[in-house]
Structure formats: structure tokens, C-alpha cells
Amino acid sequence: MRTLFLSLVFSISVFAQAPVRYTMKFPAPHTHYVDVTAEIPAGKPSVDLYMAVWTPGSYLVREYARNVEDFRAKDAKGNELTWVKTRKNRWKVDAKGAASITVSYKVYAHEMSVQGNWVDAGFAMMNGAANFVTLVGADKRPYEVKLELPEAWKKSISGMKEGPVPNSYQAVDWDQLLDSPIYAGNAPIHEFEVQGKKHYLVNEGEGPMWDGPASARDVAKIVSEYSRQWGGLPYDKYVFFNMITESGGGLEHKNSTWMGTSRWAYGNTQDPPETPGGGGGAGARRPNRLGWLGLVSHEYYHLWNVKRLRPVELGPFDYENEDYTRSLWLAEGVTSYYGPLALRRSGLSTQVQFLRAISGAVGQLQSTPGRLVTSAESASYNAWIQLYRPNENTQNTAISYYTKGEVIGFILDAKVRKATNGARSLDDVLKLAYERYSGPKGYTPEQFRAVASEVAGVDLSSFFKNALETTEELDYTEALDWYGLRFRPLPTRGGAPRILTGATTATTSGRIVVTRLQRGTAAYDCGLNVDDEILAVNGYRVRAEQWPTRLDNYKPGETVELLVARRDQLMTLKMPIVADQPKSWALEVKSDATDEQKAHLKSWLMQ
User: Fold this and answer.
1) Fewest CB within a 10 Å sphere: which of 104, 132, 327, 339?
2) Most distant CA pair in the chain, distance
């Protein structure tokens, strides 16, 4: 009884906490500033305030406080209060026991990225973490935000609950506030309903090259497919912030997503040209809307996988320090697997296009030397220091947990299907994990592995250990056999073999400069360095336009002398000529696939 009483007292006290109230103004939006005023409950001699240093879903310390200036604090009577900076992102205000204080500051907002903050004369797109300060320890306090818009801006929208006056919003706690971007401006907003839930596609930058109503219909198909897969939609409204601003990337939120794209990204659905070894797409010249639809599909899937079903380490968040997890292969990689799969299942792509997407991930993984150095779980744990901070050696030492996780998802799905003779799939694994561990619980790596084994009816611990904890090559045999697929053999190439150096170069003011070297290749092993300038081959000057084909004049097994300049010092390196031995990772249906295999493929893609 005493425990129940204490719980009630705690719940009432939390519920009764006074909110922090923010007002956001844009007196000169062309200067890229937003003025923020915060009314903050105090009641103490001094209060500590802080701003987040990172935003969930993007695992890099971004130091948002670097954009804060003109910080001031006052009491209820307007008297100035003294304050001192105690950390890079903290302020201690001498509140003098006042019941509440008001702090004001300016935020410079000129970063058109999904983790950033943007204000200009035309519109504002703002992340919570980049704008708001609060009391240390006030995570469960309610929050209110009111926008005072420039005269030229007619609307605002957020995934948060709307407040009692126009352009105002309410968040139940600090997590929701920081997880709810806000848009203000004049963008076309396309509204549609799925399962009785309202959805909004905010197309800032929509012009004649972007068919707004058609893009909204396509997004609705993606929503409907995921609603079918998960058995419903766990929100009242959802906002797709689509910034058509020649930008890129996407960031998931619980009731919204911020995406960056190009005005040319919603063209046709024709296949891009295929690249050697499988996949295709990197050299596309025709606009292909599947790239944008894939981004929508990926970010929207996150509302289940990571925003509600999350690794135990990703909540409650420590907004001032890194939150480490080994499960981003699942949170991000498996999401990358379902992104193109949902497009196929919803009829937005063809079977060939879907297989190209999976082929692209397999090809990228298998062509990255770092796969033999860093495991999937290690890549996840190192996200804070590697994924967002690549250098010229990253491909040799690391992998993307997005890419390897996507490939693991492909293999794991087939493994579960085969173990249950097609009765269950990875869909069922995720739904059971969601049932058990969504919400405030979170899952450990061991718990997710146990759920997968339970659904499959077989012990998958050996598979998970090899795929996640080691750098052993993944085995595609079982998945290919289940679906009747194969890696398409490369066509026989006539003429001289293609020469592989392993060096990536760029032309800088007419100079051939090495920018990257792949481990285990001729260029790497002969001692060529990044930033070396290549001047001549076998005593003959080589110009930038000649370098791509100059080595075709030599035969495999021969050795050439490269004259290079390294920090202005000339030196000669001997490099062997090695023929490229490309391997195809392009998936296709086998011509002799059995009826049973074709049925498995159809069930997988729900054709």
C-alpha cells in the first residue's frame, strides 16, 4: 500500500510540474537567426541549464551550443541575472530564488542537413536539439513552443500536439520536444489518411519538376504496406518533412521524419545503368524516383524499428554524452533491408529493381576490405568515431553497419523462412520482439537473438555469432537456394584485360593526385601514398586525361615505374601490372529455378 501511495505521489508531482515555455521569433530570417526566449521554472538560488550535444538517430557529437550567442537571463520583473558558462553546453544562472526566470538567446541556423537547423528568408526547418535549453534533470517536465512567424510565412507544422493558439505546440517531455522538428514557411502540404490516421507530406521546394500529389499517393502506399506488416499504425498523426533543397539524408523521429532531396529526385522509375559487378545506380543519368521512395521507406520504417523497438542502450538518452550500442546493424541495417522490400511489396518497384537494391548492398560489402577487419557489432559501437568521420583509409579498416546489417537481414530472413518451411519470416521475428520489448523496455543483443531463434524454431546463436561478432565472410548459399537465385556470371570480356591499380585519383589543377588506396592492391603494396602526385609512367609524362588508359598499354605481369611527387620531393615507385578479376554480385532468378523456389520468391516479395 505504501508503495502504491508513493507511486501516486510521484506521478502527481511529475504531472503537476510547470512547463518550460519557449517563444521562437524570426525578426530577420535572411540573416539565418532564430531568437529563442524560454520561461523556465526555478525556485532555487541558482539553476543549471543545458543544451543537447547530439540528436538521436545521428551518432555524432555535433556541439549545437556553438551556434548560440547573446545569452541573457532575467527574473520575472525584468531584472538582469548573472550567469556563467560551466561547460561547453551548460549555463549556471544566479536565479536568487526567483520562482521562474526568462532566458533569451540567438541561434545561428544555416546548416541544411537533417541533423542541423535552417532559417532563411523563405522558410525555417528546425531540430529540437539544436534550439532548446532546459533545466538539468527536467527530462520529464512538459514543454510548450510558440512561433511568431514573419509576415510572409503563413503556416507551421510539427509532429507534436498542436497548442491552444496557432503555431504553438506541446510536448509531454524533453525527449518528445527534441524528437519533433518544426517547419515554418509556405510549403505545399499534402494531406492523406491511412487507417484513419492523418499524414502530411511537407514539400518545401516543390516546383514543376516535382509532382506533389503523385508523390503523396506513393508515400501513402508505403504507409499502407507497413501498416499491413505491423498490424496498425502506433500514432495519431505523422509528418514527412521533405526538404527539396538539393540536399540529402534522412533522420527518423517518433511521429515524423526529416528528409533532404533534390528537385530532380522524383522523375521516372526507369532502371539506372548497371555498374560492373552488380547493383547499379551510382552512374545513373536519368532521374529515378526509387532513390527518394527508398529514403521515405527507410525513415518511415524507423517509427517501429528504433523509435519504439530500440536497443536497450538507446533510452533514456544522455543528451550530453555518447550512448553506445552494438545493435545498429539491426536498428539501421535491417531497416535498410526493409526499405526496398516494402517498395516491391507495395507495387512501387519491380522484382528486378528490388534484386538490384539487394545486389548493391552485397556488392558494396564484398568490395570493402574493411569487412575483414571490423565486425558488424564493432562497427555499430564505433559509430561515434567512424561512420560520420571517414578518412581515406576507412574502406580498409571499417564497414557500414547499414550495409552489412542490410545483407544480414536478407540472409536472416531466408534462414527463418527455410527453418519454418515458409511459415514464418523476419517480419514475425520483429513483431514478436516489438510485442516484448517496445516502449520503455528496449532489448539486449541476447534478447533479440533469443526471439529470432524462438520464431525460427532452431538455435541461431552460431549464425549470429559469426555474422555479428566476427569478420568471417557471410554465406549466401542458403538464401540463394531458398529463393532460386544466383549471382549472375559476368559476360566474357573480349580484348585486353582491365587493369586494376587499387588507387583512386582526382584531378586538381591539372594534377593527378591520389585520394584513396585499397588495401592489398598493386598501388597500395608498391608504396604509393594518398596525396602523391603521379607525374610519369616508365619515363613518359602522363597527363590527367591520359591516366585512366595509360596502363592499358602494359600487360599483366609487367612492372612499371611511377614517377611521383610527394611533398614536392620526386621519387620512383615500381608497381606491378595486375589484371582486374571482378566478381559479380548481381542477383537474378535462376533459369532452372524449381516451382517451389519460385513460390518462395513470390511469398517473400508478396507478388
Assistant:
1) 104
2) 91
- Tell me, rounded to whole angstroms, the distance of Cα 558 from its chain centroid: 45
> Given this model, what pLDDT does residue 269 score?
59
State how far the Cα of 555 lies from the Cα of 538, in Å rounded to an integer: 14
Chain mean position to CA 485: 29
576, β-bridge pairs: 559
At 541 the three-state DSSP class reads strand
Rounded to whole angstroms, the Cα distance separating 190 from 200 reads: 6
Residues 340, 344: Cα–Cα separation, whole Å: 6
- CB-based burial, 101-132: b 16+ in 10 Å, e otherwise: bbbebbbbbebbbbbbbbbbebbbbbbbbbbb
Query: How many whole angstroms separate alpha carbon 574 and alpha carbon 562?
Result: 6
Q: Say how far apart CA 19 and CA 16 lie, in whole Å.
A: 9
Scanning 92-231, the segments in alpha helix (DSSP H) are 174-178, 212-230
Q: Tally the C-alpha atoms within 13 A of residue 505's C-alpha that lie toward its C-beta.
A: 25
- Buried b or exposed e, range 426-453, using 16+ CB within 10 angstroms: bbbbbbbbbeebbeeebbbbeebbbbbb
Q: Calculate mean pLDDT across residues 327-333.
A: 98
Alpha helices in 251-375 (DSSP H): 289-301, 328, 335-345, 351-366
234 contacts 272 by C-beta, under 8 angstroms: no
Phi, psi of 250 (to 5 degrees): -155, 150
Q: How far apart are CA 10 and CA 25, in angstroms?
A: 36
- pLDDT of residue 66 exceeding 50: yes
Least confident stretch, 15-19, 172-176, 212-216: 15-19
**92, 308, 326, 600 from 431: Cα distances, Å:** 45, 12, 21, 21
| Res 284: pLDDT | 36
Cα–Cα distance measured from residue 452 to residue 430, given in angstroms and rounded to the nearest whole number: 8
Confidence of residue 582 (pLDDT cuts 50, 70, 90): confident
d(CA 279, CA 299): 22
Q: Quote the cell numbers at residue 479.
A: 538464401
Cell of 494: 573480349
Burial of 592 (0-12, 13-18, 19+ CB in 10 A): exposed
Using CA atoms, how far apart are residues 305 and 299, in angstroms rounded to an integer? 10
Mean pLDDT, range 362-387, rounded to an integer? 97
Output the nine-digit C-alpha cell for 550.
595509360
**490-537 tens-digit pLDDT:** 886 666 788 999 999 999 999 999 999 999 999 999 999 999 999 999
Hey, what amino acid is at 514?
V
Judged on CB neighbours under 10 Å (0-12, 13-18, 19+), 273 is exposed
Q: Which of 158, 160, 383 is nearest to 258 (CA)?
A: 158
pTM of the model: 0.93
Q: What is the DSSP string of 73-107?
A: EEETT--B--EEEEETTEEEE--TT-SEEEEEEEE
Q: Is the peptide bond before 150 cis (omega within 30 degrees of 0)?
A: no
For 268-315, write each residue's pLDDT tens digit: 656 655 544 444 433 334 457 999 999 999 999 999 999 999 999 999
pLDDT over 90 percentage in the chain: 91
Beta carbons of 141 and 22 less than 8 angstroms apart: no
